Amino acid sequence: MSTEISPPPVKRRRLDSSPPSNTTLRVYAWNINGIAPFLQAPQKQITSFFTPSPTKSTISVSEPPPPPRASLRDFLRRHSFPHLLLLQEVKIAPTDTTTQTLVQRAVATLHSSPNEPDYLAFFTLPTDKFNATGFGRKVYGVCSLIRRDFFTSQGVTVRNVDWDAEGRFSVIETEGREGWPRLSIWNVYAVNGTEFEYRDPDTGEVRGTRHGRKLEVQRLMRGEVERLEAEGYGVVLAGDMNIARDGRDGWPGLRTRPAQHMRNRRDFVEKFFGDGEGGLGMCDTFREMEGEARRYTYYPRGVKWGESCDRVDYAICSKALKGALTEAGMLNSEQERGPSDHVPVFATFDFGHSRGGSKKIKQDDPGGGMENSE
To answer: Cβ contacts of residue 42 below 8 Å, gap of 6+?
Structure first.
């Protein structure tokens, strides 16, 4: 990549590809911008293409379905079967149970590999009749893929939040067994602030703009995180926050228009990272581990890789979990972006280990990828 587009690449840190231990938690989050490319279409009988003859029996021959363009199971295997893969913007209509079943099949243990971990799929899809209606309601939506052994061993429960009907939040909570802390892990697809109208989800009455709704959601999310921390939970917020944090997080520059976008950013930073009044002082895991590195998670399609990119996807954790953080970053390569316009982010915690300090690694290539050791 030329220096006109980005600073020169530097040596990458290699990812730990070993399977999770009994004390580690490995979380991946990825805005996949539609789950359809990851699914194999259901089989159709050849008879479905013809009008049956009243005098002849139909032929029950199935034609092979086309293979998916990408594979969730391959992603899980390539990254040593993390405990959680949190997907955003899955674009599944709330009534589409067929696609939900296909997702569960796509991540289940294969008969050919019975010793690999099995996964459960949990969906939060839009029920808002006024703000999530486009494309046959195939908008927004999150899906949480949870390793079955982790689900069982940590007494996992999965819930929604009562202040969102757009399918943007799924909350995964554990009981804190076997020496682990109690955890509340959020799959987040945050509101994108725009001038479009936001309507009351019950009455349809206009209540302002999507900018206002973004600020409201940030307030509600902050309040619930504060409550959970007071109850003894360690909180992890992972996913697409739909905002870049500061000047290090946009290439070639940080978005500064419209002015309301800047206010949304300031509110986000103060509420979740601020140490002053009203701030939670949470840990941006990427910044904690990578320091001033300029790396990004959103790479729009139709633009040359690395010419325009932003870091809008995060794994954020409570201060109480910072000492257990051992690894964090993003898989910023065209291969890992797959059919999406975002790349996955990840964080690893070891609850049998506490770091004495933060590891800082300088890395300044917006188009570069992190090497895997698989």
So the answer is: 65, 98, 102
